[in-house]
């Protein structure tokens, strides 16, 4: 298998984490919710997936536990921002701090202070016959199942957002919640549903990070990816297809970082670790398209 094929396979795998969380974040953003707490939701999902896989012996149980744990934390965010009308940005930051502390506590409670994790069940590569043997692009078709699911969900989410009644309601609530409330649409329930979906997909992303892309959990292992997801949503113009393009860009920067570390080991690894964040900042700076950002983005609706 050529070096280019291996690199393309790495790009797709690295992009999956951003894509899964980004698809959930798109629905929250289009409903007018700015959830800075995606970092904490992903971190919670990453730990719960490892705990679930360790205790049950099944990576699918770990995935289910990760989704439930992240949705529970997302429900806390929804309670504060929708029911109590708390500031969304401040609540999101508080959610990240809460998740950071809770994951450390749970991790050390389950695995001890030394943090040694025994062998756990993880997502294995699933090669697609014929396609996995193609030159150059063959490695793309030898990925774990969540990778395929993530890219299949892109057209599904695109269709739901732009071609269904549910998508119309979500977009309407993000742009004109008072008008929606006037005609009888349940604004708060739609926003709460979008927040919970963001939590579910963020938990999926965190689970894939710890049991698919890697096979362990470390404290703070999300390492800013949640914030990069928000950048991917903005750079992708609040569209599932755009988020996929942004996720592939960020995935390529992360894959390139590891290849450069191997090719040029004399350069400090900290410089390579900066690459994904530099590319993220550069992508946001050159973004000039007309934005689909909702008019009511980040503002609490008061009935």
Task: Tell me about this structure.
The protein is 69% helix and 2% strand. It is an all-alpha fold. The chain has a single domain, classed as ABC transporter involved in vitamin B12 uptake, BtuC. Strands 1-2 form a two-stranded antiparallel sheet. α3 runs antiparallel to α4 and α3 packs antiparallel against α8. It is globular, with a radius of gyration of 19 Å. The N and C termini lie far apart (60 Å).
Compute the number of structural domains: 1
Give the end-to-end Cα distance, rounded to a whole number of Å: 60 Å
Q: Assign the CATH architecture.
A: Orthogonal Bundle
Strand line-up across the major sheet: 1-2
């Amino acid at each position: 298998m050529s070096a280019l094929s291996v690199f393309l396979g790495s790009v797709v795998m690295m992009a999956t984490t951003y894509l899964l969380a980004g698809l959930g974040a798109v629905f929250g953003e289009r409903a007018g919710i700015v959830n800075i707490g995606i970092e904490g939701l992903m971190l919670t999902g990453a730990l719960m997936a490892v705990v679930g896989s360790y205790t049950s012996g099944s990576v699918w149980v770990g995935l289910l536990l990760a989704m439930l744990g992240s949705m529970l934390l997302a429900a806390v965010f929804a309670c504060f921002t929708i029911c109590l009308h708390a500031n969304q940005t401040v609540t999101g930051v508080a959610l990240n701090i809460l998740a950071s502390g809770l994951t450390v506590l749970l991790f050390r409670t389950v695995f001890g202070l030394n943090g040694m994790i025994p062998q756990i069940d993880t997502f294995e590569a699933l090669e697609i016959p014929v396609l996995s043997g193609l030159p150059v692009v063959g490695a793309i078709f030898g990925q774990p199942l969540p990778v395929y699911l993530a890219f299949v969900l892109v057209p599904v989410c695109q269709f739901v957002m732009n071609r269904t009644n549910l998508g119309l309601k979500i977009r309407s609530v993000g742009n004109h919640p008072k008008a929606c409330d006037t005609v009888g649409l349940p604004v708060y329930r739609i926003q709460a549903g979008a927040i919970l979906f963001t939590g579910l997909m963020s938990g999926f992303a965190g689970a894939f990070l710890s049991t698919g892309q890697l096979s362990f959990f470390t404290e703070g292992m999300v390492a800013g990816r949640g914030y990069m997801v928000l950048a991917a949503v903005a750079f992708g113009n609040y569209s599932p297809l755009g988020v996929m393009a942004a996720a592939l860009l960020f995935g390529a920067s992360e894959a390139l970082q590891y290849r450069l570390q191997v090719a040029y080991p004399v350069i400090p690894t900290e410089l390579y670790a900066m690459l994904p964040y530099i590319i993220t900042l550069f992508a946001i700076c050159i973004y000039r398209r007309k934005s689909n950002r909702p008019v009511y983005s980040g503002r609490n609706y008061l009935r």
